[in-house]
Amino acid sequence: MMDDSASKPHLRAGRLAARDAIPVAERIEKSLQLADHGLATIPVSPGGIVSGFLPIRSEMDLRPLMAGLRQRGARICVPVILDKERIVFRELVPGAPLVDCGFGTSAPGPDAAELEPDIMLVPVAAFDATGQRIGYGGGYYDRAIARFREKGLQPRLIGIAFDCQEVASVPAEPHDVRLPAVLTESGLRHLD
């Protein structure tokens, strides 16, 4: 764990560099470990909606976990950036074509159903033991979660990261949404 209470950009850069340094074969193994832990600890009901994400750069690869949750009856969706302020979650179904969505991401096209997740698997650049997280700096997830809550929805939030992305403390801002749990290659942790 990095012992640093520096600024968000500094923490983000340091933890992303640590993530980038994980060799590809080890990253694949850790993604499979995360999938095993997630399938053992994330309950889904048939028709329940889970948002994941397709990996970019050196992110944890959630495809094995999403495939396992789909086999249990979950509907899977992934984020799509619509503009500088908003993301929506479109259903990811096997065999459906993916389109380039910018920032190195791909997702189902505009014909795919837009879903409101019951469980959100949230990408994390850095996190701390209290559940504060740093994303990539765009605020997309914070705004999407706020939108869901304004509608009276309370999706279960689970951060997704490698163990090496934990830091001693993340500076919190008023708009930041705290994560009650994080899933890493070591398992699911409920955060204070």
Automatic annotation (TrEMBL):
This is 5-formyltetrahydrofolate cyclo-ligase. The keyword tRNA processing does not apply. The lineage of its organism: Bacteria, Pseudomonadati, Pseudomonadota, Alphaproteobacteria, Hyphomicrobiales. Its cofactor is Mg(2+). The keyword Transmembrane does not apply. Keywords: ATP-binding, Magnesium, Metal-binding, Nucleotide-binding. It comes from Pseudorhizobium banfieldiae. Its EC number is 6.3.3.2. One of its GO terms (biological process) is tetrahydrofolate interconversion.
